[in-house]
Amino acid sequence: MIKILELFGGIGAPRKHLKRAGIPHKLVDYVEWKDNRVRAYNAMHPYKHNPQDIRGWNLKPDILIHGSPCQDNSAANLNDDKGRSKLMLETIRIIKEMGEWRPKFVIWENVRGALFKAKRPIFDEYLREIELLGYTNSYEVLNAMDFGIPQTCERVFCVSVLGNEVFDFSKLQHKPLRPMSDFQQLDSEIEDIEKYVVEIPSMLNRIKDLATPAEIEINKSKFRYIETIVDVCNTITEHPDRCPSAGVFKMSDGRFRYPTEREWWRLMDFDDEDFDLMLEEFPTKPGKRNATLYALAGNSIVVSQIGAILDLLLDGNYAKKETEPVQLELIC
């Protein structure tokens, strides 16, 4: 039985994959301070967790997964750090306080902005500190499109293996891109569709399909345009009605609409059954879009991205050729 620990656990994408794949596992603990995310996690899993802070915490998993807050690493906030980007270093403290015992694998995930020059010193400190604990690091930026999801979500993943083995990202099992029709709802399926129609002038003015080539040329240095979603959407965030955005869908009557909350969750590779549980936990007000459901999905890891890493680790053939792979024992 593989024991996992989820720090900054969000809504539980790693555990979602393990359950979907039927992989026997035990959750040592789940740590997340934000109440709405804990409520969402509890709605999808049987054990009821309480909000808790990562600081001052200690237990012993086989696989430690942490995705520290990404807001300070985003392109919009690279010069406005509120200290959240440094919370990844709390994981180092937790491992140190485990004593001689160490998790076999530590997986960290964040936006690719964590590698930018302004934030890179924090990431480099993390790499140095975890190496001093006996780990060998390997990291890479992964795109959700390579794992079947039609979303240009790029995230940096760092896999640290206890010992000298180097995790080989080239061995990850990629999946063919699924069609957007698997994720998009038909206009006729959407209840109260008018609340999703783009009506704000500042948003309408940025829809690329409504602009002339001359307008696009004039404004290219001022702001980004909003793309119409056809085959692939841009990165899912907390908000569908911001620019830059994941994009908008063109309706059958020629108007444009924001993706629905259900589409948001599908594009993060969660099932409709998960979303239905969220609707029960966070009901939508009549005539309003559900900001909570958008934010919960937008802060998550794409399930198939983290799933590919977990599958390779549990398969045991994760190491580069110059090192000898070690099978992580599964005890059923």
Account of the 3D structure:
Helices cover about 25% and strands about 15% of the residues. It is an alpha/beta fold. The protein folds into 2 domains: about 1-175 and about 300-315, Vaccinia Virus protein VP39 (Rossmann fold), CATH 3.40.50.150; about 180-300, DNA Methylase, Chain A, domain 2 (Alpha-Beta Complex). The strands form 2 sheets. A 6-stranded mixed sheet has the order 2-1-3-4-6-5, sandwiched between helices. A hairpin with a 5-residue loop joins strand 7 and strand 8 (about 255). The longest helix is centred in the middle third of the chain and has 13 residues, at about 120-130. The protein starts with a strand and ends in a 17-residue tail after the last helix. About 35% of the residues are buried.
Strand segment tally:
8
CATH class of the largest domain: Alpha Beta
> What percent of the residues sit in helical stretches (DSSP H or I)?
25-40%
Number of domains: 2
Uncertain ranges: 70-78
The average pLDDT is: 88
Give the helix tally.
10
Strand percentage lies at 5-15%
The third-level CATH topology of the largest domain is Rossmann fold
Element order, helices and strands? EHEHEHEHEEHHEEHHHH
N→C terminal distance: 6 Å
CATH superfamily of the largest domain: Vaccinia Virus protein VP39
Please identify the structural class as seen in this structure. alpha/beta
Label the CATH architecture of the largest domain.
Answer: 3-Layer(aba) Sandwich
- Cα Rg: 21 Å
How are the strands ordered across the major sheet?
2-1-3-4-6-5
User: Shape from CA axes?
Assistant: globular
Characterize the main sheet. Answer: 6 strands, mixed
